[in-house]
Specification:
The complex is a heterodimer.
Chain A (H helix, E strand, L loop, with lengths): L4 E3 L2 E5 L4 E6 L7 E7 L6 E6 L5 E4 L2 E6 L4 E6 L8 E8 L10 E6 L1
Parallel strand pairs in A: 2-10
Antiparallel strand pairs in A: 1-3, 3-8, 4-5, 4-9, 6-7, 7-8, 9-10
Chain B lengths: L4 E3 L2 E4 L5 E6 L6 E7 L6 E7 L2 E5 L7 E4 L6 E5 L8 E8 L8 E2 L3 E5 L1
Parallel strand pairs in B: 2-11
Antiparallel strand pairs in B: 1-3, 3-8, 4-5, 4-9, 5-6, 7-8, 9-10, 9-11
């Protein structure tokens, strides 16, 4: 079992603020790192998949970076909007299994 | 295809009863995963299938839990003699094979054992 840590556990920001979260994981046996957004009463939605050290991915106002050597990934949200309110999960994949962190719960206050 | 579907969405059962959940994956996907998620935790891997073959099971999966994917399409997860500790959200996801491939999740089945 992989120990995956996400911080902070929860976050409240004002609309328009930029924010970032951290996902830490053991750097050995690593194949890919996945980020998901999970809104209440909906299915978890895939945001990014990253495999290479130094990978950077961007989707609109959300971007992510990956450092496989030190075992961490950052997720950034620029100009947070109320619709960004959700739990953000990261999940390293060791080949067949996904190991999810406990998530960062983001609340964007209008 | 509208995505991964799960039935039922909610299930309330009494301790000791058996329950069965169903997952219909995206039709082209040959991998299917089951997860359990409890309050304050991330999804926890239970098992996965490639086509009809169950390739891996979590050691956390007790012998009261069994999963099948008989024709390589839909899957069922059965919990026998339910316990209150089984109360959780049970999520299903499907994908193509590969570590860098996205998983697509269903909406989950919320189980409450009274």
């Amino acid at each position: 079992i992989l120990n995956v840590e996400q911080s902070p556990q929860s976050l409240h920001v004002q609309e328009g603020d930029s924010t970032n979260f951290t996902c830490s994981f053991p750097s050995s046996n690593f194949y890919a790192l996945h980020w998901y957004r999970w809104e209440t009463a909906k299915s978890p939605e895939a945001l990014f998949v990253m495999t290479l050290n130094g990978d950077e991915k961007k989707k609109g106002r959300i971007s992510a970076t990956l450092n496989t050597k030190e075992g961490y990934s950052y997720l950034y949200i620029k100009g947070s909007q109320p619709e960004d309110s959700a739990t953000y999960l990261c999940a390293p994949n060791t080949g067949n299994q996904f190991y999810f962190g406990t998530g960062t719960s983001l609340t964007v206050i209008p | 295809d509208t995505g991964v579907s799960q039935n039922p969405r909610h299930k309330i059962t009494k301790r000791g009863q058996n329950v069965t959940f169903r997952c219909d994956p995206i039709s082209e996907h040959n991998r299917l995963y089951w997860y359990r998620q409890t309050l304050g935790q991330g999804p926890e891997f239970l098992t996965y299938f490639q086509n009809e073959a169950q390739l891996e099971k979590s050691r956390l999966l007790s012998d009261r839990f069994s999963a099948e994917r008989p024709k390589g399409s839909f899957s069922t997860l059965e919990i026998q003699r339910t316990e209150q500790g089984d109360s959780a959200m049970y999520l299903c996801a499907s994908s193509f094979p590969g570590a860098g491939i996205e998983q697509y999740f269903g909406p989950g089945t919320r189980l409450t054992v009274t």
